[in-house]
Amino acid sequence: MYEKNGEQYFVVDAHQHFWDASPANWVKGQEQYAKGWIECFHAYMGLGPPETHWPLEKFMKYSEEDYVKDVFEDGHIDAAILQSTYLKEWYTEGFNTAERNARMVEKFPDKLRVNGRFDPREGEAGLKQLEEDAKRYNLKGVKVYTAEWYKGSRGWKLSDSQAQMFLDKCKELGIKNVHAHKGPTIWPLDKDAFDVKDIDIAATSNPELNFIVEHVGLPRIEDFCFMATQEPNVYAGLAVVIGGLMHARPRFFNKVMGELLFWVGEDKMLFGSDYGIWEPQWQVEGFIDWTMPDTEEYSDYPHPTTETKKKIMGLNAAKLYDIEVPAELQLKNGGTPAAKEDAQLVESA
Amino acid sequence: MTRERVIDALAEVYDPELDEPITRLGFVTSCEVSTHGDVDVVLRLPTPQCAPNFAFLMAADAREVVRRLPEVRDVTIKLEDHYTGEEINAAVARGDGFTGAFPGETVDDDLGALRELFLRKALVARESRLCEALLNHGATPEEVAARRLEDLPEDLPDAQRCIELRRRLGLPVHPAAPAFVLPSGEPVPAAELKRWLRTARLVRMSLEVNGGMCRSLMQIRHGVAIEDPEEVLR
After folding, report:
1. pLDDT at B148 over 60
2. 20 to 30 A Cα–Cα from A222, which one of A326, B36, B120, B171?
3. Long-range contacts of B3-8 (CB under 8 A, 24+ apart)
4. Are residues B118 and B91 in the same domain?
5. What is the pTM of this model?
6. pLDDT tens digits along B8-17
7. Domain count of the fold of chain B
């Protein structure tokens, strides 16, 4: 719980990692990729305030003690979703597997949840694995990387018929949140890996699932906004938006948030720190302090209220993940629905 | 052949995703011209994982603009610090298309559709800046929508930049053509102008934010400080 100016915020971090990218975990012959990947992540950390930067060695593998301090002690986080990222082509034990995340969840069962993953190209074996993972980790969500390499294939789409089998399996297993990484990626080649059209189709065909687009489709935020404004079950995952822009590019941050509030709306935006890329503390505190400047440049954008921030910081994610929110931290009078009429006035481009 | 002329030529190469010249983004690491007219250009991008298709387009375009210069003998383009640098460099040196760089992994040799998609986004972004400038100068939406290309003030750099892009996209560029057009080439109707601007501004913001992110990463990874896009583009 975070308190500022007499207001209390229940904070859910919907996008965190607990990875091991240390050299001991690099696949032989793939060292340059394993090293390049984590060094690139490390550069992103540089977009945060200097006093929050870590040396590369710590960044490659941070400890449980680091996690507890950064997230729970200093980070104001009440609950968090640990996302799983495998990248086993480069990392022997995986970069950040559900298994590794689950070890953390075991220590903080009241606060943490782990998300699983699937890859439709794994076929029957993948379905079986998803079933096992769902039982073992009590999955309520998965994270998928549609641009990931797999045996010569350079990516897949959520609208593929093979993917639909996995989405059906999700429903059967009680997994209702599908986080899709549509953001900076590794190997899209001629396919545009940021393309969100597949989400559009999958969201329409699967209204009982929620689709959280991580990194709001950056660098294709416009395509994401035009799509999300039409789909009631598509959400904006703010990882990278807050961490990558709020400190480094505050004017752009205002505009990106303004556009998201306009097109997607405050009921469908979820805070995610992307820890360990960025520590949550400065992001939570900075976001609660953030206001849309009262100048002509931003006059067309919705201005966030305390209620807006309470939703984005935790209440929206708590709803998706059935996380219990103490009565005193809920919105008074149940809150007011966000104004949607503005965005509806504008047809999609 | 002087280094300055080569740099000037390289300024015609744009990052398709950002609609900015690679010279302004700090992507040209070095450029050397020998007394015999051999040109060596080294390029770098914000991350080693920047999408290979766009990386290829920039490297191939760089070779093309330099080769067109008179008195140039041999051109070597080297994309450094990139996952697929070797493949891209070898294909560009041979004058191959994208399939030459990644045989068996792609069938899209000239990346034409990708290039066109981003030229269209760039046009929307340029038009939105132009439209905002006119509205800020006090024009009404009706007046703005009625503008023809010949009515555009010459002191707005985006006016000329819009015309150049329209020419490349095969959209009308005659003086009496409407100044603000939809992707189809149809004029933006006055009643729709505000709505259109709302979407166009989002496209523009996307390009500019991506440019900002790239600049920040260039600074962090390579220590190069590059002027702010918002200042440049205004």
Report:
1. yes
2. B171
3. B3/B31, B3/B32, B3/B33, B5/B69, B6/B31, B6/B33, B6/B39, B6/B41, B6/B66, B6/B69, B6/B72, B7/B31
4. no
5. 0.93
6. 999 999 999 9
7. 2
